[in-house]
């Protein structure tokens, strides 16, 4: 028992950056999402190295995915087609299949064409951490490793629950989709999920380093408020945070701290900008396909709940609604994960400006004021932001944009459904008939 506990403790402990990201790259490399794997050299030092295995996985994945898409379109085999068969549902499912194919190609091809940018970002964070050590910050990579493992476990848990719900709905509905359709769905979900995991890890890394930088500047402001001007020796862990520990940072010359902070902020902005360049087209395709699926899944659910297609197929309404609602929720979670990940990093970067200006108001030394003014100008010109190919910003304003567009398209689709409802004759009314006014109005609407 002791040996097992010690083995697990060793696996969950990381004393360097690359060990903390090893589980993430193990899965992304195996699935072809990234072209790199964490390997150890002869001296035992870990680093990211390109692997030919990922190229084979990408080729096989794209070939099989292309075959499944062609088969699905040619044979017109879709989930909704087994229940509803209208021009809107057929066109919607074909659009989703084509968009899924385009999304898979872009995500996997980007991995090959822009892999050097991803490598540069992941190799740049250890350099940023070395700069942090000069101003009293030491990183706890064990916490980072545990965070990565928990994210992987949570992703696996979500997939397990989703598969159980999907299979349960298929059994209850007495429907068995083709393996090609199942492969398209699972491949798309796995590719999107692990791409978002890599993106969110970089956003978390950016947020943590901005948090550490803000803590350093706040500590400096606190020391000025308490008139601490004498140099103090470095002491162990004045304040322990989730992923780093802080030391005393009072030195003979506070200008050195400001200069180091400026350089660190510039490096963090460079890393965030490069990450955005790598993920920009991937995020655009992921958000687009997620929006498309949300629109049509919501439409299918509303069609059934409103009773407009109640006689077009024999199925259980509860299972039907559960299946498409679950699929819709998965893609809502994908969009929320992307937006919240980037938004947290943006919010941390915005707090730095307020802290720097607070220091500027308290500074009395001319040289120190000049450094802080330079830092203020840098903050003005170097801002962290994320976009999807420059078409729209990835922040919380995207929620409002998507909600408005979703409402608009749903109204349009429902109106098309109304226009395609076959005409019904007026029902005969008996002398003592007590038909509700609501039913009469509904018949008049349909007849008109």
Model description:
This protein has 448 residues and is mainly α. It is built from 13 helices and five strands. The protein has helices at residues 2-11, 17-20, 22-30, 53-75, 87-113, 115-133, 141-173, 179-225, 254-305, 317-362, 366-381, 397-419, 437-447; strands at 36-40, 46-50, 137-139, 239-240, 244-246. The strands form two sheets. It has a three-stranded antiparallel sheet with strand order 3-5-4. A two-stranded antiparallel sheet has the order 1-2. The N and C termini lie far apart (77 Å). 32% of the residues are buried.
Largest sheet: 3 strands, antiparallel
Q: Strands of the biggest beta sheet: in what spatial order?
A: 3-5-4
How many β-strands, per DSSP? 5
Mean pLDDT: 80
Helix content: over 70%
**Shape category:** globular
Strand % is under 5%
Instruction: Give me the secondary-structure category.
Output: mainly alpha
Radius of gyration equals: 28 Å
Order of helices and strands: HHHEEHHHEHHEEHHHHH
Number of helix segments? 13
Would you identify the regions where 5 or more consecutive residues have pLDDT less than 50?
Answer: 229-241, 310-314, 422-448
Tally of discrete structural domains: 1
Distance between the termini: 77 Å
Transmembrane segments: 20-41, 53-74, 94-113, 148-173, 179-202, 281-300, 320-339, 398-417
Pfam families: 7tm_7
Function: Gustatory receptor which mediates acceptance or avoidance behavior, depending on its substrates.
Membrane topology: Multi-pass membrane protein
């Amino acid at each position: 028992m002791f040996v097992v506990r010690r083995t697990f403790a060793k696996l969950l402990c990381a004393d360097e950056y690359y060990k903390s990201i090893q589980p993430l790259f193990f899965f992304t490399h195996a699935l072809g999402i990234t072209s790199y794997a964490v390997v150890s050299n002869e001296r035992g030092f870990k680093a990211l190295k390109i692997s030919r295995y990922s190229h084979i996985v990408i080729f096989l994945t794209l070939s099989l995915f292309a075959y499944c898409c062609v088969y699905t379109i040619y044979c017109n085999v879709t989930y909704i087609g087994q229940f509803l068969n209208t021009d809107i549902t057929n066109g919607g499912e074909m659009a989703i299949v084509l968009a899924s194919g385009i999304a898979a190609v872009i995500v996997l091809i980007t991995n090959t064409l822009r892999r050097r940018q991803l490598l540069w970002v992941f190799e740049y964070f250890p350099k940023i951490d070395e700069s942090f050590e000069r101003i009293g910050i030491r990183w706890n990579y064990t916490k980072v490793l545990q965070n990565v493992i928990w994210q992987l476990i949570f992703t696996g848990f979500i997939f397990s629950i989703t598969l159980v719900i999907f299979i349960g709905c298929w059994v209850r509905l007495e429907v068995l989709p083709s393996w090609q359709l199942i492969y398209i769905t699972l491949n798309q979900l796995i590719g999107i999920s692990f791409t978002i995991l890599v993106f969110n890890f970089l956003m978390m890394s950016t947020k943590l380093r901005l948090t550490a930088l803000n803590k350093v500047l706040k500590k400096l402001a606190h020391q000025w408020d308490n008139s601490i001007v004498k140099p103090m020796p470095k002491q162990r862990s004045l304040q322990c945070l989730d992923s780093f520990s802080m030391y005393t940072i009072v030195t003979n010359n506070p200008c050195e701290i400001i200069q180091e902070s400026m350089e660190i902020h510039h490096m963090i902005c460079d890393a965030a900008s490069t990450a955005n360049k790598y993920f920009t087209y991937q995020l655009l395709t992921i958000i687009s396909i997620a929006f498309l699926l949300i629109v049509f899944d919501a439409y299918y659910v509303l069609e059934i709940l409103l009773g407009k297609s109640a006689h077009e197929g024999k199925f259980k309404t509860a299972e039907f609604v559960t299946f498409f609602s679950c699929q819709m929720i998965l893609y809502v979670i994908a969009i929320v994960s992307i937006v919240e990940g980037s938004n947290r990093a943006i919010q941390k970067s915005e707090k730095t400006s307020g802290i720097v200006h607070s220091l500027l108001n308290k500074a009395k030394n001319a040289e120190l004021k000049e450094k802080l003014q330079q830092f203020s100008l840098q903050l003005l010109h170097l801002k962290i932001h994320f976009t999807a190919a420059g078409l729209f910003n990835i922040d919380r304003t995207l929620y409002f944009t998507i909600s408005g567009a979703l409402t608009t398209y749903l109204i349009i689709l429902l109106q098309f459904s109304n226009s395609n409802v076959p005409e019904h004759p007026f029902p005969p009314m008996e002398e003592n008939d007590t038909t509700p006014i609501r039913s009469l109005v509904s018949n008049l609407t349909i007849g008109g």
